[in-house]
Structure formats: C-alpha cells, structure tokens
C-alpha cells in the first residue's frame, strides 16, 4: 500500500551541520572540522593562543548580482580540547583546509602524530 520513500539524488549523505568534532583514539587528541563553503585555503587564517584557536575565512567570489562576500569566524576553546590547567599552546596544533573544509587537529604534548587522522 505505502511506497517507501527513495533517497533524493541531490541529497549528500554525511554530517548535516557546519561543525564536526571527533576524538582521535591514537593519543587522546581532537580533530575539529568546520564547513566554510567557497573559501579557498589561501583565504583562511588560523591564530592559536593560550586559551583558544581562532579562525577567519573569507569567500572572495563575487557574482554578477551579488557583490558581497561571506566571512566565517570562529574559535575552538581550550576547555573543549585539553585538560583543565594545561595551556593550549603546549599541545601540537595543526590545520589543513581543502575544498572549503577547515580541519584543526589538537594533540597532547609529546605526541608526534599531528599529520594522521
């Protein structure tokens, strides 16, 4: 009687939010991804400090009827990625941007695995 709904061909499977966070099992580090649509990796600025890792991205594409650009700003706080009392700058912090997705990896001090996911 009822026909099962089929998947829509234009719906992409995966995370539906603009942020994704996962713990890495190899050393207790964290990996946080942010969706910055249309932002080139050269237009992303990442600024780590003692309490947070701030990021800034700007979509510089200009279209015929829309001369505005989109600006993305955010931060990862120390409390979300490391133990209390441990400065964030003592951790190994690495980031990469590809296809409009910024991935920030924070590993505990002394681990040499910032390039793995």
UniProtKB/TrEMBL annotation:
CDD domains tied to this protein: ACD_sHsps_p23-like (cd00298)
TM stretches of this protein: none
Protein name stated in the entry: SHSP domain-containing protein
């Amino acid at each position: 009687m009822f026909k099962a709904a089929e998947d829509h061909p234009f719906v992409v499977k995966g995370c539906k939010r603009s942020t994704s966070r996962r713990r890495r099992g190899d050393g207790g580090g964290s990996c946080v991804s942010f969706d910055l649509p249309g932002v080139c990796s050269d237009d992303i600025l990442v600024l780590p400090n003692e309490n947070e890792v701030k990021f800034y991205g700007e979509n510089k594409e200009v279209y015929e009827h829309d001369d505005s650009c989109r600006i993305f700003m955010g931060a990862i706080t120390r409390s979300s990625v490391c133990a209390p009392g441990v400065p964030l700058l003592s951790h190994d912090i690495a980031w990469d941007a590809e296809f409009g997705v910024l991935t920030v990896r924070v590993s505990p001090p002394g681990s040499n695995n910032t390039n793995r996911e």
